Amino acid sequence: xxDKFGLDEAYxxxxxxxxxxxxxxxxxxxxxxxxxxxxxxxxxxxAAMYAAxxxxxxxxxGCGTGAVGIGLSALNIGPVDGVDISAEMVDVARSxxxxxxxxxxxxxxxxxxxxxxxxxxxxAGVVSAGTFTHGHLGPEVLPEVVRVGAPxxxxxxGVNAEHYETRGxxxxxxGLVAAERITNLTSDDVAIYENNTTEHGxxxxxxVRFIKP
Length: 213
Known about the structure:
This protein is of the alpha/beta class. Helix content is 34%, strand content 26%. It has a single domain (7-211), classed as Rossmann fold. It contains nine helices and nine strands. The longest helix has 11 residues, at 16-26. The chain starts with 6 loop residues before the first helix and ends with a strand.
C-alpha cells in the first residue's frame, strides 16, 4: 500500500470536504494501492449477497472506482448506476468494463448528507460497500437511501462493524422498521479482507439487508 494513503487517512476524514480532498488525490492509484494490496473482498461479498435474490436496476451508493459494480456485473445483475461524492473516483468507475460492456449504465456525483438529485423510487435494488464506515456516512442518511428505492426494493448495505456499534445504526434501522419504512431486516457478519495481516486486516462488517414495502 502507498505510504501516503491508506485506511488511517480514510478513517481520519471528518467532513464531506475532507472526503473529496482525499479521494481526489487517491483515485488514480486506489485500485492498486488499496483494493489489490489489502486483499479486499468486501465488495464482491456484498454483490454476491445482493445477487442471491435481487435484480436490476441497482444503485451503488458510494461506488468509488467500481468494485461493487464489477461484482454485480459478473453475476449478471444490471443495469447498475453509481453515485459517489468524489468526481475523480466516479471518473475511474466510468472507465470500468467487463466482457466489453460498461460496468455502469450511469454515474452521478452526489452527497447523501445533503440529498441526491435522483427521483423517488427509481431502483429495484440499492447496494453499498465501504461507504458506511469511520469518517464517512452514518445512519442519518439511511432515510435518503431508502427514498430512492421503489416498493419492493431490496437493499444490501455494508457497514463497518465498529462504526455500526458506535454510531447507532441498530436503533436507526429499528426506527425505520417501526415506521414501516422497511421490512425483512437481517444482518450478516462478513470479512472485509482476505489474508491481510495489517493492523486493520481483521476488520469486519455487517451487511444489512431489508426490503422497502
